[in-house]
Write a structure and sequence with these properties.
Blueprint lengths: L5 H13 L30 E4 L3 H7 L3 E6 L5 H11 L6 E7 L2 E5 L2 E5 L2 E7 L10
């Protein structure tokens, strides 16, 4: 009965202290995998820019050196800047990203939704231009 015998209780405590448990190493994700942005390896930046967003408002700001693009939902500002370097060969001065809200529409007595998305406004240096075909 080690409960009442303090000598046996000390021996049991020493035996437990001698065999410490080894810490389990957790498997870490490789450095290339990030949350929210593109992976450094594997995925190219060409998938970031979907297409140029050509609207009346966008055509006014192209005179000032700002271009508007539809981008994929998980893209960050840095991803958009890298895609501009890779695809068009220009370095943007500033990149602004914003959400396009979904819109409710009614046609033939039925209700529907026009999908939203994300867009990026890319500002270039004075004198730099991008030509769309």
């Amino acid at each position: 009965m080690a409960f009442f015998n303090p000598i046996k209780r000390k021996k049991e405590n020493k035996e437990k202290a001698v065999s410490p448990k080894k810490k389990e190493k957790r498997a870490l994700l490789p450095a290339a995998v990030r949350v929210g942005g593109l992976a450094k390896s594997g995925e190219r930046y060409s998938s970031v820019l979907k297409n140029p967003r050509i609207t009346e408002k966008a055509s006014f700001i192209t005179e000032d050196g700002a271009y508007t693009f539809d981008i994929r939902p998980g893209a960050t500002k840095r991803d958009v800047a890298q895609a501009m370097k890779e695809i068009y060969g220009v370095t943007p001065v500033k990149v602004r990203t914003l959400e396009i809200p979904r819109k409710n529409v009614y046609a033939r007595g039925k209700q529907g939704v026009v999908a939203g998305g994300r867009k990026a406004i890319v500002y270039l240096k004075k004198g730099e231009r991008i030509e769309f075909i």
